[in-house]
Known about the structure:
By secondary structure, the protein is mostly beta strands. Among the domains are: 31-108, no CATH class; 422-539, no CATH class; 547-649, Sandwich (Immunoglobulin-like), CATH 2.60.40.10.
Amino acid sequence: MSSHRFLLFLxxxxxxxxxxxxxxxxxxxAADCATAQNGDWNDPNTWTGxxxxxxxxxxxxxxxxxxxxxxxxxxxxVTINASGTLNLAGYTLDVKGNWDNSHGGxxxxxxxxxxxxxxxxxxxxxxxxxxxxxxxxxxxYVTFDWGSNTTTVIAGNLTKPxxxxxxxxxxxxxxxxxxxxxxxxxxxxxxxxxxxxHLEIASGxxxxxxxxxxxxxxxxxxxxxxxxxxxxxxxxxxDASLTSHTLSGSGSTTLExxxxxxxxxxxxxxxxxxxxxxxxxxxxxxxFDGGSHTVTFDGDTSLGGAGAYNFHNVVINSGKTLNxxxxxxxxxxxxxDWTNNGTFTHNNSQVTFDGTSVQTIGGSATTTFYDLVxxxxxxxxxxxxxxxxxxxxxANNGEMRQTRSVGGATSFxxxxxxxxxxxxxxxxxxxxxxxxxxxxxxxxxxxxxxPAGSYPVKRCYAITPGSAGAVTAKFYYEYxxxxxxxxxxxxxxxxxxxDGTWTKITxxxxxxxxxxxxxxxxxxxxxxxxxxxxxxxxxxxNPQAVSMARFEGQWLPTGGALLSWETVSEFDLxxxxxxxxxxxxxxxxxxxxxxxxxxxxxxSQGRTYxxxxxxxxxxxxxxxRLEWVDMNGVASPVGEAQVVNLSDELPYRGxxxxxx
Length: 660
């Protein structure tokens, strides 16, 4: 043999050995292995199409018989057909391609593990499958797809390292049961992001999430126990084009951090939830809706984002801090109770109470708000101990209540800032009437038992003493709660007798009330309180003096305007005055030279009145004001109406309701 031929022979022999040893790639293509009979995975007789061997990492597997693992195995694509059964028998099957269990076959995890470990391209899961442990050991740039319209049950752990992307799929559910683990306790771990559409924790399961972000693009239902470690969090977002999410279930849900992503997402709590980490963030165009449930803060947590926070009950645990939203990022709305056993740092944010039933501010710690707002219709109980503070403003547009023991000089709802600056005054009582509730309705258009058309100061007072007795009472109000034309120097206290009548009480002193004053007052030195609820208002005249049904104006085709009005009752009424103006910049001009007298002054019956303005001033829009005058000659406005002069389109009638 020549030296050249010998060298060529030697080179071919070495190359062959390298292929056998796996040093160089083989030219053998992946096999399509199908089952030929029932048997073990590692038995060549079980398979056909495997070149006389068993499936390997690059081979596609189709199972139409019963196959059982007796050791750890690997394959590319795995398909379980209708007549097929795959038993893991406690071993690991490494799948480097797709998993297809959509044909009605059977998969028995038998406490084994399925590992998805594509090194390139993508992987997918088809068909409903119950796994024990699942490992997503994907290389970077690999996408794993949960599939579409599937339910995947994971009875053990889900581990997702940092490589690759886990795609939520379309209308898919992943349910954790813990059924293959001691005490039904399972884990979601690994540093990579886990993405789901619908995520469920089954009843009896305990699932701990640690490491990597958790994303839910649909709903999260927890009927077991779910918690997160300090390095994790959960985000509700709209990756699957779902913007409405619920957090529900009968279980215990403890989250490290909670995020509601942008894009108009709404997360509605249908279960209580505990936040134990540092962030609760709602993006600027999204909403958290607490429903009728409680959010408990059991960590040092900051509210972030300019989205809407609509809590129901809020609880701050002992030793924990809740940091409010940054000023300018919107309002914190509370429709239930506020319980602070720790620390609330307001960050110049506004907290608004807007519930439809009685709300309570409580807890073992004092809450310092920045702006404290009670919306119209809301009722808020403020504690006597740890009475809340407000560093900027208190706006009571609903009702605030407080209960204190009156055994001497006692202030109700005297709220200050953390530096002791006055922010709100309710009332002061001095006497001995025991445990007493004082309720203040602020900025009210009407008060209980006050008829429409009567205009007391826009504040209603109710005192429920522990026992009947006489007290010195100081009724506070704000300048902004005075009505147009009301003179603080002529206000009287009126007590509701409960039968449609009111008793006039002449105050012993009245304070001045100037622009921006929050502590204007009227004081009665000896006010008799009966058992039950005692209601009071501040007004010039009897609240029952006149009750208006309507005040209307219409343009007449023959020229001029016709004003008509109707009363329901005329207690303490002497008569009326009418005024007119054609623009807001003009003063009101009185139309009647003499008082338009009531036919039956002091009557409990109503009357109908009419007045024709023959020659109104020119102007397209003409405003009229009606003023009633009591028996003492004190006048108060009771309504305004407007008519429109459109002479080119006569007849034209402009009907407007009385302004109250």
